[in-house]
């Protein structure tokens, strides 16, 4: 049944630190690399080397500009993937029972053998986290690398989602949100971790850490005189020379 | 949202067929000879054609049978189950009616209720989606039900005329006027329901809104993808206005005029009225999809 579980035993998910992400897209690339070869159907591309390439990705990196009041603009790189919501609307709309949320760890998965590719779950998701694979005709989404995190055949340090393992900046963290003492929960508490679109009432498990407020320079004058910037007022010998040259006209 | 022809044809035709089932089940339609056959044939034909069109939207239609399994949680599954039940009950009712000439009113009422419930389930597929504010409106189910009912009434009238029986053109005219009122009601509410009517915007989507004004600096990819094709469809505003006029004229004004004329000139005018109505509702249903905006497009910088 595509009803949601009352409570999941564990609540596995990601913390994404928007203060640290440098927008290198390594997580998106390693996600595609891992997930095109293991769990489920491959992540297909259409016209990959042609004029109009497109394809299925489970993780995409947007970049936004924040323009604060009276301060310089700030760029924020923003990785976006499935948030494994506690009230996942994508699961309950599924007519075939292909979409489900696991009781043991809260991961939202698609049984690709049962998916008929109607696309209603993608409509129900506010985050654009589900993409219909155009070669296979089934819905693809982030699995939290379910075939890595419990995999005894790979070294222990690799038993995290591929995006977390590959992030060169340490902007992505994986853990159990059910455990109050977990590192991910501490980060969320210390840094004010936030939900995306809380008004959609999906109760996302994944949390985003907001970028820290930048240091601000002493307030610049409203109108900056470019001439004075190009020639800062000189003192000492240079000042005397400047005044002497000025007197020559 | 992407206006897929398969879903537009499906919702319009199945709504029409189920509307006919609704009225015939309640006892409408003449009992004489050929008219019964026309009515049954058209009702089941429209509903079946709609059902066939719906599978055109599936990437894996071979698995469509699985959609009957999740009726406890999914409106789409409920729609599929109710549709089969309604058409099954009606086929039995109509078979007895056509061959034996008697109407089993209990079976008729059952198929009416199931037909109504099917159209309601169809509407709820859209009305349940908080992500598409233009669909999750209070009058969305009423709009679907009204259009289905008036289409069914026109269908029964036209089929009766085709079968050589007298058609209830006065009731048809009244029905068209009432349905037009519901359509205007929905349109009035929908007019203000853009992407931001859900309370979401680029600030809540990114969580960055409290730090300042947010805009998309760089999209994640330069080409198109499923998300943009499916949920960021852009309709040319000028064309939307003209289509809405076409929908109003063909869907309601022309059928209303023809139904009133049919009162004086004969029921056969309900046949062109039905054709005009279907064409108008197809245009309106296209707009129902094309003008609907999905909140995920905030991540692509759309406002």
TrEMBL record, chain A:
Report the superkingdom from the record.
Answer: Bacteria
SUPFAM superfamilies the UniProt entry points to: 4Fe-4S ferredoxins (SSF54862)
Q: Which keywords does the record carry? A: 4Fe-4S, Iron, Iron-sulfur, Metal-binding
Gene3D superfamilies, per database record: 3.30.70.20
> What does the record list as coiled-coil region(s)?
none
Any one GO molecular-function label of the UniProt entry: metal ion binding
Domain (4Fe-4S ferredoxin-type) spans: 12-42, 73-105, 106-135
Q: Name one Pfam family in it.
A: Fer4_11
| Protein name stated in the entry | 4Fe-4S dicluster domain-containing protein
In which organism is this protein found?
Thermohalobaculum xanthum
Q: What is the lineage of its organism?
A: Bacteria, Pseudomonadati, Pseudomonadota, Alphaproteobacteria, Rhodobacterales
From TrEMBL, chain B:
According to its record, what are the GO cellular component terms? dimethyl sulfoxide reductase complex; plasma membrane
Regions that span the bilayer: 7-25, 37-59, 80-100, 106-129, 141-162, 168-186, 246-263, 269-288
Extract the InterPro entries matched here.
Answer: DmsC
What Pfam families does its record include?
DmsC
Which BP terms from GO are recorded?
A: anaerobic electron transport chain
GO-annotated molecular function: dimethyl sulfoxide reductase activity
- Keywords in UniProt for this one? Membrane, Transmembrane, Transmembrane helix
**Record bears the keyword Metal-binding:** no
Q: What is the protein name for this chain?
A: Dimethyl sulfoxide reductase anchor subunit
Q: What organism does this protein naturally occur in?
A: Thermohalobaculum xanthum
